[in-house]
Amino acid sequence: MPEVDMVDCAIGTGADYSKECVLEKLGPRQFVIHGPNGGFRRFEVQQNDQGVSVISIDGAAPVAVISDDSPLEFAVEDDVYRVDPALITAPQYE
């Protein structure tokens, strides 16, 4: 069974944050966030000297990074996510 964690998300315009999205690791750098409405988005982590960034790998609109601190906050269209960087860069996934 895949490793999953609950993360904060605000799905849709004007939505409030709630911890109802599920982050599922797919491999060392890829993960999916499942929304409460059944939708999902696939992402890839990119890590360099500047820190951690996230890109979309499902053909969706580009990712806009809001904050690269902890938690990492990023948006795709009207959906916004807050993720602890340790969840997507943890050594057990490499």
Description of the structure:
The chain has one helix at residues 85-89; strands at 4-11, 18-25, 30-34, 40-48, 51-56, 64-67, 72-76, 79-83. It is mostly beta strands and 94 residues long. The chain has one domain (4-93). An 8-stranded antiparallel sheet has the order 5-4-3-2-1-8-7-6. A hairpin with a 2-residue loop joins strand 7 and strand 8. The mean pLDDT is 89.
Helix content: under 10%
Largest sheet, described in full? 8 strands, antiparallel
Global mean pLDDT: 89
In percent terms, what proportion of residues is strand? Answer: over 45%
Q: What would you report as the Rg, rounded to the nearest angstrom?
A: 12 Å
Helix and strand pattern: EEEEEEEEH
Poorly predicted sequence stretches spanning 5 or more consecutive residues: none
Structural class given helices, strands, pairing?
mainly beta
Question: If strands are numbered along the chain, what order do they take across the biggest sheet?
Answer: 5-4-3-2-1-8-7-6
Number of helices: 1
Number of domains: 1
Choose one word for the global shape.
globular
Please count the beta strands (DSSP E, at least 2 residues each): 8
Query: N- to C-terminal separation?
Result: 17 Å
